[in-house]
Amino acid sequence: MNGYEAWINKLKFQGKGFTTELRPDKTYIFPTGFGFAFGILSFILLVMAIGYGNNILYFFVFFLVSMGLTTVWLTNKNVDSVRLTEIQMSYLYANEPNLITAQIDNANKKDSPVWDVEFRIEYKGATKKTQPELTMVNEVENTGFVSLSWMPAKRGYVRAPRILIQSRFPFKLLRSWKYSHRPNEYLVFPQRKGKESLRTLLGLQSQKDEMANLDNEGLFRDYREFQNSDSPARIDWKRSVKHQKHLVKNYEKSGDRKILIDWDMTASLGDFEERVSQMALWVDLCHEQNETFSIKIKNFQTDYFASPNHYKNCMEKLALLTETDVL
Amino acid sequence: MSRGISFFANTPLAVSLLTTLAIAATEVPLWASLFSFLFVGWRFLFEKYGMYKLSPKITPIFGLMFFLIVYVQHRTIFGQEESITILIGLTSITILNYAVERDLLFMVLLGFLMLVLKSVFSLDFVWVVPALVSYFGLWMTLLSNTRVKRSRYVMKAMLKSVPALIILFVAFPRFVLFQVNRTVKQAPLSGFNEELSPGRFSEIANSDEMVFRAQFANTEHIDGEQLYWRGSVLVNSNGLIWTKGITQRKVISYVQPANKAKVMYEVILEPNKTVRNIFALDAPVKVRSAEAFSEWSHSVFMFANTSDQRIQYEGEASFGQERVLLEDPVSDIKYLKTTELPPKSREWVQNIKNKYSSIDERLKALTSFFERPGFIYTLKPGTYGNDLDEFLFVRKKGYCEHYAAAFATLARALEIPSRVVIGYQGGYYNALSDFWKISQRDAHAWVEVGVSGAWRRVDPTALVSPLRITLGSTEYFSMNEVDQMLFSKDKRFNSVTAFQKFYRGAMAVVDSLNYSWTIFLLNYDMQAQIEILKDLRFNWVFLFISVVIILGIIFFITRKKAANRNSRHELYRLYMDIESWGQKNQVAFDINATPKEVLSGLAAKFPEYKEFLVNFEKQYEQLVYQERSQNLNVAGLIKEWDALTKRRKHA
Predict the structure, then answer these.
(1) Do B175 and A50 touch (CB under 8 A)?
(2) Which domains does chain A have, with CATH numbers?
(3) Region class of A110: left (phi > 0), else alpha (psi between -120 and 50), else beta
(4) Average confidence (pLDDT) over B229-257
């Protein structure tokens, strides 16, 4: 088992992500540009064979045509055998590229691998330019994995994405494709975006006289392994490469410092979604630096905690926050 | 220095495309082949030694140049030779420019096109083998995944495509929609010419190029020395030079000797630009062919047109050396005309005339003259001009044309009606497929003399060198010259070495395959298809029922497979129905709306459905999120939904 698979398995069995099964849909097939050119060539040659009444011309033309027909079957079978059986992902954030990993199963009962299959999460209304790049998997003997990037458009519950599975294997004459989707829904956390940093938050908080230590932002303590709840941005890649595992920095906690993230602190931001995103950013920063924090939204306030579960609860609250909740 | 994508590193591509170019290059002018070689060579030097790469802006100029040269030469670009020349140019220029995957795909298409177009020029099995290798390589090239065992994969794919190939090839009706004008390529050097002017034969005696193949239907054993393939008859005599003279198209009636059995044979004639003659086995009785042909005087048959395609014909013949042509009487004065003989010949003729008064005796004296030791059958007799005396009395060296011309001229001088017949003699027998291969080196000339009111064949070559006729040209010309001279009168002499035997055996296998292949290709037409259907006791009702049953089975299997593969829970299908119903009824959903949001939206807009929707949501969540399908009343929900929508429709 290589490092990548070990990492995937770790994500899978931590039980923090979502796991779901997808079912394949119908498989479609259509000639590629090269396939069209090949078809036109075959047709012209067939007309020539008729005109010349030449059996060897017929032989070669029909050989081309029969190879084309065989390709229809091979290309279709190649895509048809692909099953995306499981999707693993960590927390999802709106308008941020989230890495999701799908398990590919080769449903072909015979011992024949699936070759050159491309995957992509499809967005409705996206153009060729705005669609993400296709991710190619060269070979799947029995099982494999593909990592895709998904950027949900909104927070809250969203429908599972539609995944395009396509291939031009073996001879690039035809493109066969299908979509894998299921009516599951996922809770998407708000986008972590804002103008105000954690330092600002602490400044704002000091004005409210609810905190003793103002200037201790937390010092580097040590490294720990990456957890599902961590942002991939926190990974110290240099260190990770050296130790062959994903490491993130741990910071000293500032004693008994407690941080309150209050909805009212975002009052300077006019837009409701911007305020939610700012709250999410602060929650994320606090969690990253292992701070003890609480969120307060009008009459609702959580306890002070510094745990992945607390982070999840706070983000869920923000994910489902509506305008009526802040009236 | 980065040289980008490599052509020569892609072995299947390089091998298959260069083989294809080599196969196609045999059909194009030398300049095109040289240019092509230059471009490919340039690419090689660029890849291996970092030579300057031509700018992609310059290379289209070469392409244009190819077009222009072809157009200026032929005044068209759509002929067979013209199109394949342009294809070779395009391919080699693309090889030179090869930089992206699109170029590779283009080259593969050009490769396929060139391979198929080659078959317009030749049906030979010999080139089909390298063509199939190239074809295989081109498919391999398209497989870009390096983890796949490419040759194995393509071989499997080809095997899988064989059933479709067989069905298409056998069943596709060979209807004649239109006839493409066949442009005829350069004529090969032919051993057959409707004029006898000794000098050319020694050149073509080394040519193994096939003229036709023949197969006999009802004869147990045939010796090569019996086979005289009559092509044309020369009537006008001028010493060693004979010409055709005026011939007429006519229906000829033959009177065959009663006791001679007829020989049935079938011939496949190779393409030839200049020769329209049908080579009919001597003595010809009848000829049949699908191509237009006519009968001419002197038992000569001719096609209406030349053809660059193989032509098949059948014939009947009698091996008798004598026959009477009622409308071609031997008494015709034209068969006695000759120019004045040179002194020694004139003296010899006068001497015989004085000595013998009857035609038979004079003929015997003439044959004895050629049987005498001293005459040498050789392909290198030197040049004579038209000096009969020099040939007959001084050098005495020559080959079939010299002997036939001299014999017939002397015969006429002796008042024996005579004429020269030209065609082919013997051939090489392929025991594997039981056919005779007649090549250019079998070109021959012999004489017909009119005796007792009938034409009788006399072969002066057989008088001078019986071994040449019994051995056949292939084996005779493979002997060294000394053996040829020493043993030319010995019919039983055979000097074939073990290696020659092996080589001929191997060539016989190739010829045999080629023959079977050609016979199949030529004979498989609409008529053959109808015959096959008749053999299968075909009738339309049977065909219709079979097709319906097959389609039914395919439909049943694919439907069942699809149903199994794409089976979704009925509850999910009902959800999809509900969602699309909502869209039809102007309920706007966000593109990311979850089922729960969709159902709530619908319940808000249609309160009368709320109870049903809440119930549905409960069961849907149980199925999707708890993954429990027990205790679901899906049938009830479907029924209820149908009733609700119907009620609304009626309302």
Answers:
(1) yes
(2) 3-189 (2.60.40.10), 198-218+253-326 (no CATH)
(3) beta
(4) 70
